[in-house]
Amino acid sequence: MFARLFLALIPQAHPLGCGLGTAMRNPRDSHLPRCLTVQRAAVVALLWLLAGTAGFATRAAWASTDYDDIDRLLRARDPVAALARADQALAERPGDPQLQFMRATALSEAGRTDEALAALQRLTQVFPELPEPHNNLAVLYAARGDLEGARASLEMALRLHPDYATALANLGDVQARLALRAWEQARRLDARLSPRIDPKMSRVREALAPAPPRQ
Question: Is the alpha carbon torsion for 181, 160, 4, 78 positive or negative?
């Protein structure tokens, strides 16, 4: 029921070393960014780079190469290789939030959902200013049917960044699913409500249906 909860792939601002398309392609077609966006992630991602000025350009180039490599593997739908590449880079830079975030993405795409959840939860604790981990947590919660958890995570993402378009779109989808759940329960409790509820449910289900493939 929740496999198609988030449908469209919404581009974000240019992410750190990951190209313009930040939505993670996965079996659920979720609004799940692959990278942290520049406006918020650049500062924390640069903390380890700026630990000393010596070798800054070289370290920055290494970071960009790592991000590009992992992103390329994710786009090729090879999460196992992406995870190995992320682990390799994190061995050198364990405090890099972008690498941690991309590793969580690889875990999710590899079907290691519990580990992905744990990794994203750690990111929200270590880097509480970043909204993207909260958005990605919401996608995983929703895939498990935990719509209340998904809503709470999205609301936190939007408190951190009110103009976060992907989180707003996801919150709309979650609220629509919650509305369907409430209407279904109301109809079970009182069948006389069906004439009032059924047309609404049909319209919402139609809105949430996946778009036809592009020709």
Answer: negative
CB 98 within 8 A of CB 36: yes
Least confident segment among 12-21, 63-72, 141-150, 191-200? 12-21
Q: What is the pLDDT of residues 161-197, one digit of tens each?
A: 999 999 999 999 999 999 999 999 999 999 999 999 9
Its pTM stands at 0.75
The total of structural domains in the chain comes to 1
**Based on the number of CB atoms within 10 Å of its own CB, is 201 exposed (0-12), middle (13-18) or buried (19 or more)?**
middle
Does residue 134 lie within any of the structural domains?
yes
- CATH for 76: 1.25.40.10
Structural domain boundaries, residue 76: 38-180
Tokens of 89: 């880079």
Is 190 among the domain residues? no
